[in-house]
Amino acid sequence: MKYILTIFIFFFFINLVPAQGIRGTIKTSKGEVLPYAAIVVKGTSSGAITNSEGRYEVPLKPGKYAVVFQYLGFQAQEKAVEIGSDWQTVDVTMEEQAFRLQEVQAREGKEDPAYSIMRRAIAKARYHELQVMSYTAKAYTKTTFTITDLPMQFMYRKQLKEAEKEGFKIGVPMLYESVSEVTFKQPNTYRYRLMATRNSMGDNISVSDYFLTSFYRPEVNNAVSPLSPKAFAYYKFEYQGTFSERGIDVSKIQVNPRAYGEGVFRGTIFIIENSWAIHSLQLETRNPLGFDIKIRQVYSPVQNVWLPVNQRYNLDGKIMGAAGNAQFIISQTFNSLKVNPAFVEDVKIVDEKFEKPAVSLSNKDIKGQKLEDKIAKQKEYSTKDFKKLLKEYEKQEYQAKKERKEEVEVSRNDSTVIDSLAGKRSNAFWDSLRTVPLTSAERISYVKRDSLKIVRKIEVQKDSTKAVRDSTKKNRSSKTFKPGQLISGNTWNFTNRTALTWDSPLQKIYYNTVEGYTFDMGLRLRYFLRKPERDSTRRRVVNKPTPDLTIGGAGRYEFGMKRLIGTGSIGYTYKGTSIGIMGGRWVNQFNPNEPISPFLNSVTSLLFEKNYAKLYQRDFLRLGISARPFENRINVSGSLEYAERTELANYKENLKPWIDWNQFSYTPNRPTNAELGSGAFPVNQALTLNLAVSGKLAATRYRIRNGRRVASRNNSPELTLNYRKGVPFNSGNTEVSDVDYDFVQAGLSHSFETGIRSRLSYNVSAGGFLNDKTVFFPDFKHFQGNEFFLQQGDPTSIFRMLPYYQYSTGKRFVEGHVLMEYRKFLITQLTLVRLTGLKENLFVHYLGTPNSKNYTEVGYALDGLIPGIFPFFRVEVISQWQDWQYQKLGFRIGTTLKFR
């Protein structure tokens, strides 16, 4: 009986609403609801957005208020309301906005007025971005995510039924809400206090990044903003009229990309005359995965600064056969806003193409001048002069930071505090804070979730003893050995500092003509030297850096050679620095970078009678160390190895593949080489010192999250240097080390955007043997060749048709790779083709050695061969050249996936 009473009380109270305010529905004059319209209460920090049903609610204290209703393309309305002790219904009917055309019209041969408006808006974009020094805002966010289709559902029907018990169902939205207090300080510091969080999938607390997209920045999520300095290279603008609203004139500008697709927007942006700030916008783009993204923002004045009070993002698309859509809404109410004193006074911006400013500034007039002093004296600037003035201001701010010894490399500084009651708020609390009312479907999803929670609670109370017993049994089982784990592999966490991992031999079964079938297995014990700490304020609970010691071994059984080989190792790691010792017997490819993976070589050997991998035996002991000093900008590594190298042959003659091809046959395990004739070598001993350093040529930028520094991706050029020494060594009359050589190599690589969705990548290197007194084939410089129709790995630095060891050298070499990715080239000139996400590539690979005859490959590729399903596949056509003479044509199916 008490459980029935609990459920009754629960359903009674979820319908209670807080004290007083206004609520209603916003419609057009035709009776159509207006979803996501903005409601702003003047003089307060209160506001709201209508939901998809056009309904809104704004809780307010008793008193008199002026409420503004806004919607893109409709006339804003202001209503006076007086709130007592109850809710008032204020329904609004909005009229479509009436636009008037400026006196200067776009005539044949004349420039569209939109271009003059946009030149001035672009000139002031950075001004508006820097205008606010700090603020505090209350941010309400609502995210819904819906899986609309899954391929081959019959294969996991059981799992889907289990997921339905937790609230997941195909076609039913998953809902997440949060209310946060956000504090911002220029240039990049955000402080969050998560006040409340709720989702339809369970009770777990999830911290969402504060998502504030600024179109004043040159790029918005890797797409060119219409207010970017380079916008005219990507967009055409069309003036569509002006309307008046609350004493200001607003111009409607149609944004038309020169070529729509990933990296550009299309839609409408509204610009306020004279201040050239954004009034509102409605734009759409497409992301690299082929998802369509629609963005809508509405701005409102706060202390004469126009700020986004509500934003809406819709995402829709398909990947690998799974289709879905998502919606993200953020409603913000600003308070405690502080305006930068240098940007208090507004200035007049003139388009020098049509009107000369009263005073023109030279570089000498701008250099060293303070912005606030200059604006106080001069109120009118050309677009060109104003841009230069803002650049000088930012230079001065940067220098002042350095003098104050502030971190100039920090791109963003975030911290999050989660309120202890964030996940326990009542329905009444949510109704008082929620600025976007729930739809009927969303309310039902919460009712179902809360009903399930009550039922689960009752079931637990009925048999709590069993639940505790099962939980204890489960925890014990994670540390208990089971025979089946020898087949599947497993990790046993004995304590929070000790873990043992077993790699099953069934996970790595390969075949080659030297060893026959092989089973690889491994066992590793990892011990943390102090108790691991966790950073639970991030969206994922992650371990903080903790020193650890790893002891392990790897074994391989070779069925062809009927023997077991293996290695053992011990290593210490902490904060990017590692040191270790490893030794044993193993079989390796001559090229340590493994140009063909063991898996792919197994496929070619068994199905195509092509044994591309060439192997030798290594009995070795190696000491290695690596570190990342200078805050991850530079990587340093070194090793000292003593090894006995032995040539191996195919384990037997007359090997038979699974498929016997008349035109193919296995080759001996002895690489063909233009420099030596063959890769044969005697058994030898080698003491080898290997030193390498790589570094980015520009400083690394960082993002700070709750005091923890995280390096951002450094896209600057990378320089690599390598020195390898074959150390000769005699003990009496016995040669302990047979090698004697000095090898040096330098390389430079970089990848950078040349435009939207266009990229140039290159990798060049050169080097040679300064001393080549005694060099064996395993010591040669080997290159990343390929002889199979499937091309895998990095498309920039791998040859497509180069024989694996034909041009390996013990002398000198020059190697170069260039890959150009085009957004628009040949078939991608067609919009429908471009919208699929297909890219066109051109690439050139060059190798110069004493015997390579200026080996060159020139190729063309279609990347993203099956958009939305297998976007990581491409098809290539390659021409091969030597001494600038055409040799042959080849075709490849490529993928960036690396098959092990």
UniProtKB/TrEMBL annotation:
Top-level division of the source organism's lineage: Bacteria
One Gene Ontology MF term: carboxypeptidase activity
Entry keywords, A to Z: Carboxypeptidase, Hydrolase, Protease
Listed name of the protein: Carboxypeptidase-like regulatory domain-containing protein
Source organism: Larkinella punicea
